[in-house]
Amino acid sequence: MHASTLSTADANRLTTLLQSSNSNTDELEGAGAPAAAAYESHSGGIVETLEDLLEKAQDQLSDARKTEMTSTHNFELLKQSLQDKIKFSTKEAAASKMNLAESSEKKAVASGDLDVTSKDLAEDTQNLEKVTHDCKRKAEDFESETQSRGEELKALEAARKAVTEATGAAAKATYGFAQVSFFQAHQSGPDSLVASTATRLVRDLARNHRSAALAQLASRMASMTGVSSSDGSDPFGKIKGLIRNMIGRLEDEASEDAAKKAYCDKETSESNEKKADLSATEEKLSLKIDQMTARKQKLREQVASLQKSLAQLSKSQAEMDKLRNEENVAYVQNKQDMEQGIEGVKLALKVLREYYAKDKAHDAADGAANGIVGLLEVIESDFSKGLAEMVATEEGAQAAYEEETQENKIEQAAKQKDVEYKSKEAVSLDKAASEASSDRANIQTQLDAVVEYLQKLDDQCVAKPESYEEKNEEETGRDRRSSDSSENIGR
């Protein structure tokens, strides 16, 4: 016991007791034991003092045990609080890392979409420039053809005017004679020269303007001149008719070309616009399908991961249940043993106390008795402390088990719902991707039809350059027809 709790009077009494015990021992060694009736006890006050000291020591021991139990309980509470805080902080850190990974993945997907969109925009811009260039070229070709036909019409008008004004009097003087034989005799004279000049003029115009129609007109003019010279009819009248017919046909062709150009421009513009719309729709559907496919794959991976986590969670819960059962069985057995031990020690203390209190003949052996009783009380205290610690440990383990089990149930329910929702979303995405693929196939069919129609329009509306073989064949045929006409005129 603490020395500070021992008063001065008690200390003096203890000193006196020790001194008297030593003196009595010395005296007893020199003399025999006195008679039983002559012995008187002088230790009444000492026993009371020792009992008081024992009571104070027991009170101090009880307070120390209570303080120890309170400190242990507070320590366990603080330890449990810190463990919960660490566990929740770990979960929050894991959730933050998962959110960061998802954000990084979304950023990567968005960056990929931006790259695809930028690439598509560049291709569309390039296609627009190409279409604009083609339209401008076709417009320039049309203007060139229109100008060429205008010049051709002017040339024909000049030829007609030359034939009309320059050959009127000569035709009248020549073909107005009644003597056909005279005309036949002079067919190689001035009238024939005028007709040949008109034919050559038209042929030169055809060669300069590279007009097949003028070349054909020149050939027919030469043929008509020869026929008229042989039958005595007016060749210039027929030539005028040919020129008028040619002018009318060229005007009709120009009108048809203008209408055809307007039709071609309209159809080409509408087809190109439709092609652009279909291409954009097809690209959007492709991008949408790719996104849904990627999302579906990601969902399936997440579902697989969640199912794996659920399996691990079930396995961990089963192991935790098994361990808790084993700990509880051991606790019940150990608690029963400790309670039985405490009851045994209490019973021993009761027996000893009753014995020493009843048998006054053993007052001289109070020191040894008190030592045994004190030892038993220490054993009882240790047993009680061990039982309290055992109960506190069991209660803490049970509380932690129940809390962990509840958290596992919540986590299991959440993950099962995630699996259910993600599976439904994956099935929905699969269906939507199938529908989008069907829509894309339909769009691609329409796009192929529009491309084919644009190719037909290009074949119909865009003039193709004439090959060298065609030009050579045309020139050869034209020279052959001119040679035949000259021979007919000569005959």
Core attributes:
single chain; 491 residues; mainly alpha; 2 domains; 8 helices; 0% strand; rod-shaped
Please explain how this structure is put together.
With 491 residues, the chain is an all-alpha fold. The protein has 2 domains: 46-120 and 296-357 and 365-459, no CATH class; 151-281 and 463-490, no CATH class. It contains 8 helices and no strands. Helix 4 packs antiparallel against helix 5. The chain is rod-shaped and about 180 Å long.
Kindly summarize this structure in a few lines.
The chain is built from eight helices and no strands.
Secondary-structure blueprint:
Blueprint: H1 8-30, H2 44-175, H3 180-185, H4 190-209, H5 212-231, H6 235-358, H7 366-461, H8 468-490
Largest sheet: none
What share of the residues does DSSP label as strand, in percent?
A: under 5%
Could you list the spans in which at least 5 consecutive residues all have pLDDT below 50? Answer: 169-190
Helix segment count?
A: 8
What would you call the structural class?
mainly alpha
Mean pLDDT: 75
Order of helices and strands: HHHHHHHH
How many whole angstroms does the radius of gyration measure? 64 Å
Oligomer classification:
single chain
